[in-house]
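lol ok so funny story. i was supposed to be doing the assay writeup but got distracted and ended up predicting the structure for this chain instead. priorities right. anyway since i did it might as well share w the group, maybe its usefull for someone
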Amino acid sequence: MTITIYHNARCSNSRRALELIQASGFDPKIIDYLVDPPTRAVLKELISRAGLAVRDAMRTKEQEYADLGLANAADDALLDAMVAHPTLINRPFVVTPLGVRLCRPGDLVLDILPPKDA
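and the output, tada:
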């Protein structure tokens, strides 16, 4: 069973989610999304499967958000900006067999962790 976390080691929510995944006995696939960002299609799928609006998956307090004038941008422009500037992607996204979640706070990962025996 594969569990994937789109991780930023500098983020406390991301570190917490990873810690909980590992403490539950799983060895997740860790994607440092700043180094290896998701494609536009993958990002769009993550957002959709998590039940979020595109803007909800964006870090609006990052300087790039203001610099790029994204306050009134449409979803397509937001997705393009997140792919070009992965620091704008909110984190961590976690993918498990039970679903996709933006784990803010990190403890939300517990809602989608399957039983270890599954």
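The helical segments are 12-23, 40-49, 63-67, 75-84. DSSP finds four helices and four strands in the chain.
back to the writeup now i swear
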